[in-house]
Design goal:
Blueprint (H helix, E strand, L loop, with lengths): L1 H4 L2 H10 L4 H16 L4 H14 L7 H5 L5 H25 L3 H10 L9 H15 L4 H33 L5 H15 L5
Helix pairs in contact: 3-4, 4-6, 6-7, 8-9, 9-10
């Protein structure tokens, strides 16, 4: 753990490039450990997940994985409330600074940053489009991959929602907590693009 924590790459990415994904990842992992280690600490787990959501909005996709770990509907509702409470408080403070509350909400939900990337199926289609254009020069294949890239860029999030629906209905109750989190992240990185 010490080698990872002191790795130049781990230090370089958030400080120089400005990618802060390590912060929500830390708080989401802490939430996992708190709930897995002792289910009675579900409140602290929810607040930790809430801090992850405050840092970046993508950890909200982990809510179904966490909720399956709780024993009662009352705890599930309490967990959701505590998990979104830090974000609501942060947006309330931001509303005092920004001109309108709608501007705050729109900025938080739709912000995508200045530098974006491609991953999962979208990244594969994007890479193959460039390959068929610049390396082997096959116009039909380039056009097909370009069409798939555009379709996936516009509709990939719906594949993720379908993936999550299948997981919640058919898979989540039969798998471990860690497997649910891996399933969620795997679906996010395979099916989405420009969503987080």
């Amino acid at each position: 753990a010490l080698l990872i924590a002191t790795s130049p790459l781990i230090i370089l990415v958030p400080t120089v490039i400005g990618q802060i994904d390590i912060m929500p990842t830390f708080f989401a992992f802490l939430a996992f450990v708190l709930l897995k280690d002792n289910p009675q600490r579900w409140r602290w787990s929810a607040l930790s997940l809430g801090l992850a959501i405050c840092a970046k909005t993508f950890p909200i996709i982990l809510l179904p994985a966490f909720l399956c770990e709780l024993s009662s509907k009352k705890r599930m509702v309490g967990f959701i409330f505590l998990a979104i409470l830090p974000a609501i408080m942060l947006m309330s403070v931001a509303a005092l600074i920004c001109p309108t509350p709608k501007a705050v909400f729109t900025n938080v939900i739709s912000f995508k940053g200045w530098v974006s990337g491609a991953w999962g199926f979208g990244g594969l289609f994007w890479m193959l489009t460039s390959f068929f254009e610049h390396v082997v020069n096959i116009p039909v294949a380039k056009q097909l991959m370009g069409t798939l890239w555009e379709w996936h860029k516009d509709h990939g999030r719906w594949l993720f929602f379908l993936h999550m629906g299948i997981g919640i209905v058919f898979i989540f109750r039969r798998t471990s907590f860690l497997q649910r989190i891996i399933y969620t992240y795997l679906g996010f990185y395979v099916f989405t693009n420009y969503c987080g």
